Here is the input.
Amino acid sequence: MTASFHRVEWSKSVLVLAGHGSLYNPDAALPVYINAEKIRRKKIFKEVYESFWKEEPSFHQTLLSIQSPFIYVVPFFLSHGFFTARVIPTEMEIEGSLSRKGDKRVGYCKAIGENPKVAEIIIQAVYQSIQDKEDDIIKDGALLLVSHGTRKNAHSKETVYKHLDWIKKRNLFRECHVFFLEEEPRVSGWKEQVKSKFVFCVPFFISEGDHSYVDVPRLMGVTVKKGLPAAYSPQKIDGFYLWYTKSVGTLEGMDQIVLEQVAQFDEYFGVLAGLAC
Here is the structure.
């Protein structure tokens, strides 16, 4: 993830990272703040804002407070589902990928999770979990992507399956599986489906919240303590050796993914600052 972005037109524009946030978990918004700050330090955009559904600053307030006429909004979500398709556009009062709000042009980019390079970040996290040693363990191992799942939007789980397919094509693992908290196949039944002795579990979540540090570990039988590094040393569970990585949204390289989503928008619709009024 070493691509560089130095577009003159972006210096006239504002970037908004739109995340979920939480009223109860202060860590839920951290990935948004961390990656916004990384991008801010690059001095590519005129300004970089954070915006949330469940905390301040809200989606609605953020766009109202921005004075710049050129605004890119990148959903800091791992799938195109209920929040990216309905909540963000409704709260920000935008329609489609390119909107006008008075004198402002708003470019609504795809969610970060829709970028194929997230699959590379997932693979990198697995290799780091074994400190880039013993490749045979990975070749004989099983990759488990564990996501939330929801009945609110039938398309929300498509993204995690796309990443699974991209990773499968690399032929790095003996097995690749997707499990969910609230849909089938459920993560509680992982032992019945996984054949490999070596298991690498990657929580397909944005933040280190209750799902990744409480719900998934409890259902899998793994011990993970919040605030401590992920379980990079394997834990033995009923004959399996299981590595448990950090949540996808907290992994290194997500700031580059954000920039690629903006660049992809420009490729399809043109640079906001260069579009005719």
